[in-house]
Write a structure and sequence with these properties.
Helix content is 32%, strand content 47%. With 180 residues, it is α+β, with helices and mostly antiparallel strands. Strands 1, 2, 3, 4 and 5 form a five-stranded mixed sheet that branches. The longest helix is centred in the first third of the chain and has 21 residues.
Length: 180
């Protein structure tokens, strides 16, 4: 990679990781986000029967309907969504991810995080919540999602929408929560 590409990659990742608001500011933007969340939930339910069991039995969940990830050695991702407690929307969240390693390309994906109990949801809302996406997320492929179980109070489902990505990297996700 030449120096110019490296600088543009770092600048793009910096913008992704610092330049976006947790909650949509306009009512129209909030309505669009809610529609995307509903679409994401419907897609997961249609494709993975075990998904509905998690939704029905979890204490709460966060839905990030559109996450973009891009990388050239150093990677970054950003997405925002809604947080639910006992079936009611209680706030907004965003996710920032940074990776380092053999990563090239870009992709869009959807992510749903289920919280087994109030303590797990409270950890998420505290602002201190982070985890390694590569170690925790379950690629929602046929048969895989049905075997997902809670780990440290979380069950994570990920569905790739579009893109081409080669990724063998280390990194983590950091979340921010904003009450409704």
């Amino acid at each position: 990679m030449n120096k110019r590409s490296f600088i543009f990659t770092l600048a793009g990742i910096g913008i992704i990781l610092t330049g976006c608001a947790t909650a949509p500011e306009k009512p129209e933007s909030k309505a669009v986000l809610s529609a995307e969340v509903n679409e994401t939930m419907a897609l997961f339910r249609a494709q993975y029967p075990a998904f509905e069991t998690y939704r029905n039995t979890s204490y709460g969940y966060a839905v990030l309907p559109k996450v973009f990830k891009g990388a050239i050695w150093i990677g970054g991702a950003y997405g925002r969504g809604e947080v639910y407690e006992q079936g009611q929307m209680v706030g907004y969240c965003d996710m920032k991810q940074a990776t380092l390693g053999f990563s090239f390309g870009g992709e869009f994906f959807r992510e749903v995080i289920f919280f087994n109990d109030k303590a797990a949801l409270d950890r998420f809302r505290s602002g201190q919540f982070a985890f390694s996406a590569q170690a925790t997320a379950v690629a929602a492929e046929t048969g895989v999602a049905a075997k997902t179980d809670y780990k440290d109070g979380l069950a994570v489902f990920v569905m790739t929408d579009a893109g081409l990505m080669v990724d063998a990297s280390l990194g983590g996700q950091k979340f921010k929560y904003l009450p409704k």
